[in-house]
């Protein structure tokens, strides 16, 4: 089985753990440098007109990406391919999933209000469009049963 | 005819500054353009000389601040700020955002927006990576606050210095009137960032204890004394540029003296060279030349048009219209020419001048890469690069800029009444 693991800052540990403990197969670790973040760091804002160009910071992003992929590989504890990408994260992930049997990604977004809109927009896009099976993991502990709201009074459960 | 020539020269100078063919400095086009303007008689020589004399202390002040920021970085002030932010965040992306807001606002106010963009932003990215947070909200906070938090002090932004030179406003009056708008804008930006980046900020906190970094006490003390000196210099009749220069000299002197003897003169000459580079003489020349070219535009028919457009009373609608006009012009051209063009017609009214600054300082967040013109030129010139992913930034700007402008104008209006200046 070809397993693609999308590593994103803040949630990647849970994805690596899930790939290691729940799945069996050839793992590829994917990280995407967000191009809009790269642009924000690299491009001089307007107000800097006349001050030349700020020092190139693309190396900074590439080094952080490398470090994250290394940390992922170390946590996985078995051989893994690495896929460093640069672009719009949600689109890069969907494109990279074309070769995979299963994609592992973590939920992001606000977990204090669970409901239809509690997935972050990039995660939502990938879950909707990934051309393979998707394993969606909690970045920390899964929620307790008590987070389920009471059934609406006129819903099917109330009848 | 002269109007067309002056406007064409200004556009050419700005286009060159954005394109920078063969990596030439911006001054390479601006200085010849200024020479043409004077030679063609668009600006008579005495007027040009007066403009240069007016800009002199301003540009010197900015150069001193640039050197001061460079030295603060070399002494580890920014690295220390990043390490402290990582520690006090407790691994929480939300708390880190609040700390980054404070640091970026203070750095921008004291060491100018250049320091925030060039020196602080990479540190903030590294800090977010250290605690395992998604870096986007924090990096965007730096780029946004570099503009919108540059309201407080005259040194925060070159636009402020240019406006200060044209009006009789003192350092302390300026800071007093701008304090409320500054705080209001930062608060609005913070609330919008919390909402806009709720997804990225919701990733769980990972408590890591980064190694403590020793505080660069000497550099921090020099910065604090310099800041106090800005406030104290005015009653003493000393231009604050001298205070900035003194602060820079103290830091530079200590660095040179502490160079290990083994490296000898070589290490020291490299140090001096890096200081000269930090002062950015090409940029200083650019500002002088831009001042002359804009003067030509202002003296032409275009200037008369601007004169008719600007409001004449510093009441609430007048301030709002002035700030909006300045924001539009800052986005059409750039904030430097917008300031040079809009300040002289309203120089009689401190309230209107400050409203111009609200517009030219907050406004650039609307299109981020600069002005609309910058965006277009960039797209034409760098078509082979990655398509600029500006959609998200434009949306963020579209939300923050109008909200910030409105609260800032309201706060300024309030301040003017408290100070009895409206």
UniProtKB/TrEMBL annotation, chain A:
Top-level division of the source organism's lineage: Bacteria
Stored Gene3D superfamilies: 3.40.50.12370
Pfam families reported in the protein's UniProt record: Usp (PF00582)
InterPro entries per the UniProt record, alphabetical: UspA
Start and end residues of each UspA domain: 15-137
Annotated protein name in UniProt: UspA domain-containing protein
Species in which this protein is naturally found: Planosporangium flavigriseum
UniProtKB/TrEMBL annotation, chain B:
A GO biological process held by the record: response to arsenic-containing substance
InterPro entries: Arsenical_pump_ArsB, Cit_transptr-like_dom
Domain Citrate transporter-like intervals: 24-348
Keyword Cell membrane included in the entry's annotation: yes
Location(s), subcellular: Cell membrane
Segments crossing the lipid bilayer: 27-45, 96-126, 161-193, 214-232, 238-257, 278-298, 318-340, 352-373, 393-416
Main localisation: membrane
GO CC annotations on file: plasma membrane
Pfam families to which the protein is assigned, alphabetical: CitMHS
Keywords: Arsenical resistance, Cell membrane, Membrane, Transmembrane, Transmembrane helix, Transport
Membrane association type: Multi-pass membrane protein
GO MF entries: arsenite transmembrane transporter activity
Keyword Membrane: yes
Family, per entry: Belongs to the ArsB family.
The protein's name in its UniProt record: Arsenic transporter
Species annotation: Planosporangium flavigriseum
């Amino acid at each position: 089985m070809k397993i693609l693991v999308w590593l994103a800052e803040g949630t990647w540990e849970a994805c690596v753990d899930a790939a290691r403990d729940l799945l069996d197969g050839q793992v590829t670790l994917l990280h995407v440098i967000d191009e809009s973040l790269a642009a924000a760091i690299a491009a001089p804002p307007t107000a800097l007109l006349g001050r030349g160009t700020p020092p190139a910071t693309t190396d900074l992003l590439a080094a952080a990406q490398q470090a994250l992929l290394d940390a992922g590989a170390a946590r996985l504890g078995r051989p893994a391919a690495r896929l460093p990408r640069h672009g719009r994260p949600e689109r890069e992930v969907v494109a990279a999933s074309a070769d995979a049997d299963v994609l592992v990604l973590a939920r992001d977004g606000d977990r204090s209000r669970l409901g239809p809109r509690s997935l972050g927009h990039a995660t939502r896009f990938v879950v909707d469009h990934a051309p393979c099976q998707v394993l969606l993991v909690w970045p920390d502990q899964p929620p307790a049963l008590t987070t389920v709201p009471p059934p609406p009074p006129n819903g099917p459960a109330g009848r | 005819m002269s109007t067309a020539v002056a406007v064409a020269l200004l556009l050419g100078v700005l286009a060159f500054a954005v394109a920078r063919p063969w990596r030439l400095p911006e001054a390479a086009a601006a200085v010849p353009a200024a020479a043409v303007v004077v030679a063609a008689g668009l600006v008579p020589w005495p007027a040009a000389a007066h403009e240069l004399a007016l800009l002199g202390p301003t540009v010197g002040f900015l150069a001193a601040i640039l050197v001061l920021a460079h030295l603060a970085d070399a002494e580890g002030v920014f690295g220390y700020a990043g390490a402290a932010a990582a520690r006090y965040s407790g691994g929480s992306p939300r708390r880190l955002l609040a700390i980054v807001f404070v640091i970026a606002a203070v750095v921008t106010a004291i060491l100018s927006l250049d320091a925030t963009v060039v020196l602080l932003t990479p540190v903030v990215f590294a800090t977010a990576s250290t605690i395992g947070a998604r870096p986007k909200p924090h990096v965007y906070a730096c780029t946004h606050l570099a503009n919108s938090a540059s309201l407080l002090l005259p040194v925060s932004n070159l636009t402020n210095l240019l406006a200060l030179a044209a009006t009789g406003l003192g350092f302390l009056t300026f800071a007093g009137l701008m304090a409320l708008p500054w705080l209001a804008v930062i608060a609005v930006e913070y609330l919008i960032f919390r909402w806009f980046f709720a997804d990225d900020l919701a990733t769980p906190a990972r408590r890591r204890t980064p190694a403590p970094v020793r505080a660069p006490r000497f550099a921090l003390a020099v910065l604090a004394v310099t800041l106090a000196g800005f406030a104290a210099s005015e009653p003493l009749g000393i231009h604050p540029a001298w205070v900035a220069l003194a602060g820079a000299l103290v830091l530079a002197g200590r660095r040179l003296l502490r160079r290990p003897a083994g490296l000898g003169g070589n290490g020291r000459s490299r140090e001096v060279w890096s200081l000269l580079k930090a002062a950015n003489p090409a940029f200083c020349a650019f500002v002088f030349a831009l001042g002359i070219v804009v003067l030509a535009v202002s003296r032409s028919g275009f200037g008369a048009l601007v004169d008719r457009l600007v409001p004449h009373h510093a009441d609430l609608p007048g301030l709002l219209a002035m700030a909006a006009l300045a924001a539009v012009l800052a986005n059409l051209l750039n904030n430097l020419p917008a300031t040079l063009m809009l300040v002289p017609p309203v120089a009689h009214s401190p309230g209107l001048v400050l409203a111009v600054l609200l517009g030219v300082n907050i406004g650039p967040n609307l299109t981020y890469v600069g002005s609309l013109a910058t965006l277009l030129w960039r797209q034409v010139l760098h078509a082979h690069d990655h398509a600029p992913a500006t959609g998200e930034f434009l949306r963020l700007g579209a939300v923050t800029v109008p909200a910030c402008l409105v609260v800032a104008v309201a706060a300024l209006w309030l301040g003017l009444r408290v100070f009895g200046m409206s």
